[in-house]
Amino acid sequence: MTSITQGFALSEEQHDLRRTVRSFLAAKCTEERVREVMAGDSGYDPAVWQQMSDQLALQGLAIPEHFGGLGFSLVELGIVMEEMGRALLPSPFLASVVLAGGALLHSGDESAAQRWLPGIASGRTIATLALTEEAGSWDVDSVTMRAERSGDCWILDGVKNFVLDGHVADMVVVVARTDAGLSLLTVENPTERVNRRTLSTLDPTRRQARLEFTGTPATLVGTDGGAAPTLRRALDDAAAALSAEQVGGAQRCLDMAVEYAKVRRQFGKPIGSFQAIRHRCADMLLDVECARGAAQYALSAAAQNDETLPAAASIAKAYASEAYERAAAANIQIHGGIGFTWEHPAHLYYKRAKSSGHLLGSAGHHRRQLADRTGI
Predict the structure, then answer these.
(1) Which end of the chain has fewer surrounding CB within 10 Å, N or C?
(2) What domains are defined for the chain?
């Protein structure tokens, strides 16, 4: 609790991390390149993905050293996520490193972690977490998919929907029900064992897929029926990390709006001199800073295994989701007609804001979850 209550000032090393990641993304993730990747089949740039690992070791940043990572905390991971959100990077980082990696790390299954985490940390294995089903709910209690034991193996039958980067994953961590309860299972080589279909979604910078399992062999992770606590912790970590990404996107929307307000002129003066525009930018700034504080608290709580994490993660995700959407909408309005056009990047941030707002649960979902967790 000590460092949480002492504030969120970054160390010089953390500032260096931010500068390095921002510089890398400025060179590798230009608007032109984002649009090219959006139009491709995979939805990410394999060369940039590997450079992220080989040059910066980003995929292994928060994975323990004995599993092939660097052993940093979610605070450092949040810095990276914020910069990725700022650049609108299309990549399977959230799916592979945060969701699948987090589930394996918190499962307590040393064998499964040793089997998969080194590959995830090196970027050579792309993994994802398959939790949501037809309704798209991120509530772990909503899972109905079954897993049945067959000798030494487990067999999966059913459908997982809206799976992040499920179309390119080399391994899938599947959430299913057994006779003992909620369980985690891994499916390797899903190309050969799972019918995968890329979905048409609002946000073209983050791909989702529908996965159909038919008699698919799988391997149990952790204890049979003991996945609920693992999943809740992994999802809390992911909500904190995603809120940092949303802050990065919202900050970029604010920066774009302010830059435009300084150069766009009406009635012989910059539109930024008009009170209505100034007030709108001030509201955006307040939103961004409040969201940043909430995200930083949640990331610090996760890094320290603090008991406030469940509440902090829900608060951060709920606030950051709405702040990002408001900032993205205001950015379009300040830009006027050009902000609505395909040629301008403002609409890409708005689509990411809307999509991220529902990812891992909407603001309403997290407020209900917060009420349940605090006994309100």
Answers:
(1) C
(2) 2-122 (1.10.540.10), 127-226 (2.40.110.10), 228-374 (1.20.140.10)
Coil, strand or helix at 343: coil
pTM, 2 dp: 0.95
Question: In angstroms, rounded to a whole number, what is the distance separating the alpha carbons of residues 316 and 291?
Answer: 7
Q: Residues 6 or more apart from 331 whose CB is under 8 A from it?
A: 253, 254, 256, 257, 284, 339, 346, 349, 350
